[in-house]
Amino acid sequence: MNSRMQVTKVPPAANDRIEAADGYTTASLRKRWLYLLPAVFVTYSLAYLDRANYGFGAAAGLATTLHITDKQASLLGSLFFLGYFAFQVPGASFARKRSASRLVFFALIVWGSLAALTGVVRTFWLLALVRLLLGIAESLIFPAMLLLLTRWFTRAERSRANSILILGNPVTVLWMSAITGYLIQGFGWQKTFIIEGVPSILWAVVWILFVKDKPSEARWMTPGAKEFLERQLAQEQLTVAPVPAVRIALLRSDVLLLSAQYFFWSLGVYGFVLWLPTIVRQGSAFAMGKTGLLSALPYLAAIILMLLVSQISDKTLKRQSLVWPFLLISGIALLGSFLFAQKSFTIAFICLIVGGGCMYAPYGPFFAIVPERVPRNVTAEVLALINSCGALGGFFGSYFVGFLQAVTGNSRAGYLLMALSLVFSAVLLLCLRPAPSVSTLQHVRPEIS
Question: Is the model's pLDDT at 14 over the cut of 60?
């Protein structure tokens, strides 16, 4: 075997030290779940609020107000993802070398301002520029926070930590779906964008006060807990095959496969997110308020499944086998929605609930795969590459779902595109070979949460 792929087993003595944490240290370690995770949850919630409210604006008549065509409206939704795609890896590199928490602080201020501007500008090309810059600002967030979680949570906790972060997505869309529709009815879509952009700017102050880059910088943990956690994370790194440079990691076959797989997954997800309100409104003929309530149901199912799947993943240390089945079910459910869209809105909408819940369910274990395959000197950039490919998938998903609806006059072609993308993402993940370190990592699974 190549020396780069050899795995160093953790000595028994190291395991003994890991399991010897006293009650005082354990209590201090549990504070991570109270101090850190609510902060990353709220931050990602605000990011997703400013990202997904465009779908409600489009459903509320953005194109009519600005006198633009449906294809131009689709392009506005898609430009976000081009900006989001371009700056992921450079941003992740900055977060790893400098400071992830400071990067998030500045990004919060910038994207909150740009999101509010979306409701102010009236010119198509100026609005297109704002959407592109908004994507660039938000591209810095997700990889930086995933990197933070790898520095604060062990392998036996990481799927749950990832899920709490990513729960900011469906939870935000859940309450946003219930509230934004009524805000648009009361104030119009432009004032709603302004109202929903301001909280990000205010939250930046809270973020920088509480979130630190690594345990040694936290004032709310005991010195013993800091040392215990950092020693444990260092010992877990002994089971990961070393990679000498970022370029080598980004060109690895497993990283490229995960990037392609996440592209097709995100193509289905973002097409679903941006166009669900429009699809539901056309199918049900309800007003915007009730459309928002109906659109919230798939995200409620997503929240429940994400929590359940991440708990199972950390308990069993299984990742891949808890991802692809849900993506396959989601694709099949959306295919069912495609088949019943013209026959029964009720059946088609039930399929949307199943499809939406299952496409979100495996996010926690999916992003736990990467730190178990690559060492921490390249983890940030690998996560960024995978997520940037997801952004590219989001661009194609949001654009082509809207484009197909504008061309065909109905949502059926969009359903088919989303369904096939999710099925293909499941098939791709089945091709991922096991990490060489999986067997030895079974020796290191302390539970300190």
Answer: no
